[in-house]
C-alpha cells in the first residue's frame, strides 16, 4: 500500500461533477477513494452548495484536529470561486473557522482548500486544452456544449492531463494553486 493509499480523510464538495472529478483525481494520485476517503456532497436542491461546504468546514476541521495523534488524516474542502475568486474564497473559510472559535488553517495541517475559478468546469476545460485560460467568466455551459453526454470521458482525460503535469503548468492561477493545495494532503507533519 502506498503512503497515499494509507491516508484517510473527508472531501467536502458542492456538487456531483466536482465529486466525480476529485474522486477520479485522488484515485489517480494513489489515494484509496473506495475505503479511506469519505465524500460529503451538498444536498441537491437545498440552497447554495458553496454555503453548505462553508458550514461543514469548521465541524470537519474540529474533528480532524481532535485526532492529531493520527498522522494519516486529511480534509479537502473544495468550493467554486464563482465571481469571488480564489483569495476571497480561502479567506471565507478562515473566517468561518474564526467565527466558530477555531484557529485558521495552519501550514502543517493536512487541510486542502482548492478553489476552481469559476468552477470545476473551468479546470476540466483548461486541462483538456478546450478553452483559453480565463477565470473571469463561467464555463459550465461550455463543458456541456463541447462534451455533452461524454462528460465522464472528459473528466478522465482531464485527470490524465493533471497527472501528466498539465495542472502545474496551466495558465489558470486557481489550477496551479489546486496543485499546491492537494500537495498539503501528503505533506510530512
Strands, helices and their partners?
Elements lengths: L2 H4 L1 E6 L2 H13 L8 E5 L7 H18 L6 E5 L8 H14 L11 E2 L7 H9 L11 H8 L3 H13 L9 H11 L6
Parallel strand pairs: 1-2, 1-3, 3-4
Helix pairs in contact: 2-7, 3-4, 5-7
Which structural traits does this protein have?
single chain, 48% helix, 8 helices, 10% strand, 4-stranded parallel sheet, 189 residues, globular
Oligomer: single chain
Radius of gyration: 16 Å
Q: Strand order, biggest sheet? A: 2-1-3-4
- Our estimate of the beta-strand percent is 5-15%
Shape: globular
- The overall pLDDT average reads 91
Number of helices: 8
Number of domains: 1
End-to-end CA span: 20 Å
**H-E order:** HEHEHEHEHHHH
- Which structural class should the secondary elements be placed in? alpha/beta
What can you see in these coordinates?
It is built from eight helices and four strands, in the order H-E-H-E-H-E-H-E-H-H-H-H. The chain is of the alpha/beta class and 189 residues long. It has one domain. Strands 2-1-3-4 form a four-stranded parallel β-sheet. Helix 4 links the parallel strand 3 and strand 4. Helix 3 packs across helix 4 and helix 5 crosses helix 7. The protein starts with a helix and ends in a 6-residue tail after the last helix. The mean pLDDT is 91.
Question: Could you write a compact summary of the structure shown?
Answer:
The protein has helices at residues 3-6, 16-28, 49-66, 86-99, 120-128, 140-147, 151-163, 173-183, and strands at 8-13, 37-41, 73-77, 111-112. The chain is of the alpha/beta class and 189 residues long. It has one domain.
Amino acid at each position: 500500500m502506498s503512503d497515499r493509499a494509507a491516508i484517510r480523510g473527508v472531501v467536502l464538495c458542492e456538487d456531483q461533477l466536482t465529486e466525480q472529478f476529485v474522486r477520479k483525481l485522488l484515485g489517480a494520485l494513489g489515494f484509496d477513494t473506495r475505503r479511506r476517503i469519505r465524500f460529503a456532497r451538498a444536498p441537491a436542491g437545498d440552497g447554495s452548495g458553496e454555503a453548505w461546504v462553508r458550514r461543514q468546514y469548521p465541524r470537519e476541521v474540529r474533528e480532524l484536529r481532535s485526532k492529531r495523534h493520527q498522522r494519516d488524516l486529511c480534509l479537502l474542502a473544495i468550493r467554486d470561486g464563482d465571481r469571488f475568486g480564489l483569495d476571497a474564497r480561502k479567506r471565507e473559510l478562515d473566517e468561518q473557522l474564526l467565527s466558530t472559535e477555531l484557529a485558521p488553517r495552519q501550514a502543517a495541517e493536512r487541510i486542502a482548500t482548492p478553489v476552481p475559478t469559476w468552477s470545476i468546469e473551468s479546470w476540466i476545460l483548461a486541462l483538456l486544452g478546450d478553452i483559453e485560460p480565463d477565470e473571469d467568466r463561467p464555463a459550465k455551459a461550455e463543458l456541456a456544449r463541447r462534451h455533452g453526454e461524454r462528460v465522464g470521458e472528459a473528466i478522465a482525460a482531464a485527470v490524465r492531463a493533471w497527472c501528466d503535469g498539465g495542472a502545474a503548468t496551466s495558465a489558470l492561477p486557481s489550477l496551479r494553486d489546486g496543485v499546491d493545495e492537494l500537495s498539503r494532503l501528503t505533506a510530512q507533519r
